[in-house]
Amino acid sequence: MSSPKIVIVGSGASGIACATKLLDYGFDNVVIVEAESRIGGRIHTIPFADNVIDLGAQWCHGEKDNMVYELAHKHDLLDSTGDVYESYQCVRSNREVVPEDISQRLKDIVNDSLVTRQMELRNCQGSLGSYLNNKFYEALRRPENSDIDMAIAKEFFENYKKFENSVEASDTLDDVSGKGYLEYWECEGDILLNWKDKGYVEFLRLLMRSRELKTEWGVLEKRVLLNKKVTRIEWSRNDCCVQIRCADGDCFVADHVILTVSLGVLKEQQLMLFDPKLPVEKQRAIDGLAFGTVNKIFIEFPQQFWPDKWTGFTMLWRDEDIADIRGTPRAWLEDVFGFYCDHNQPRLLSGWMIGANGRHMETLPEDEILAGCMYLFRKFLQWDIPEPCNFKTSTWYTNESFRGSYSFRSMYTEEVGTSARELAQPLHVVTTKPVLNGEPTVEPLYNQSRCDKPIVQFAGEATSDHYFSTVHGAVEAGWREATRLADFYGMLRNSHKLPKSNL
């Protein structure tokens, strides 16, 4: 073998980015093992209605310092979503549409807090939820807002908190650390750039150079093994290699393994997955960083029944109406917070839901979910609602390959004092430092005969210091681990010359 054997676990954005970067560096013994029957991970574009939908990652979030944007915009793949998530109607559960001037003032109150958060949360000792609650009701008490009905304001704020939970992937904003919220860096520019009628999978094709090479997986052809669930990683062998065992009985022995699985998978499987068990610091990072679930609901109608300029609606539950469904089989509907239009899908409404009810929804029969959604439409909207002709939901929590959607910083993260940086730290073994095929180099590659070899590495969005929960964070994490190996073998200084594998 001409180069070290590297096995990447997971073919999501981070795994694909890592693999393609390793190939760019000159590593040629690279393979990805994937538990699912498809590539993409939490990028999952499928045909639906008039073109495609994204069950997972949907938008390129921002432009400046966003490598997804930098790669995609030159190919004219992105388009602005516009003001869909700002101009929506606020509709009460008695079908009353909140007057636009009132709903806009309520939206302005919560949007104004976006500006002050960056300064005020630095000294916050509590949760994002307590901070936002104080800001919202403090603004309502101002004289200029005295005419706003407090019942409507409360209903609006309850809905807004669900929206914020969907951004964070939290069950409740009381779980979200106020200080930890600031660890996320928002890229400047349009934060809701969509992929037109192509879907996010088009970005994976860019990474793999699929269009350029005119093959499905581009440079990764014959390097991805599907339906390979990893069940054991033995990383303390005498030969300084790592053995990966799969559920189908296959085994791989590699010089390095790079794990790009979700934090949800690590939380569930870490005690069974690693032999020996992970160091305490790594276990604390996996336990302490938070990982939640956000789900989508897509409903296709035979024709558009809403006005052309209507962009969607959010559901403001009156106390007496929400009491009617709590404690019933339809209680899960409380956390479906809105349905929105998509100009690339003119007959489609897409809904969002969060938390424990979102996880519960995944366990329900499809016809029961659809019946619940139609109940919402007919309870909140004044129009005649036709029967839908197509329906699809995401199921990120019940899928054992993911166990949720994306990571955030919780109050527990703050309490245990861990970070993405600790999660990203590789597991090392002490080994003889590699020599570049016995050939002299321009400068001595190593000054000592022994070094710490990164034998198990960690990537994925949850390992990103500041871009967690995003595709660009996942990709940068994959690149980071590829660069770590390139630096370890001196490839950044030695023209891609590689040592021979131990195997």
From TrEMBL:
InterPro entries: Amino_oxidase, FAD/NAD-bd_sf, Flavin_monoamine_oxidase. It comes from the Eukaryota. Residues 14-485 form the Amine oxidase domain. It holds the Pfam family Amino_oxidase. Gene3D superfamilies: 3.90.660.10, FAD/NAD(P)-binding domain. GO terms for molecular function: polyamine oxidase activity. PANTHER family: AMINE OXIDASE DOMAIN-CONTAINING PROTEIN-RELATED, FLAVIN MONOAMINE OXIDASE. This is Amine oxidase domain-containing protein.
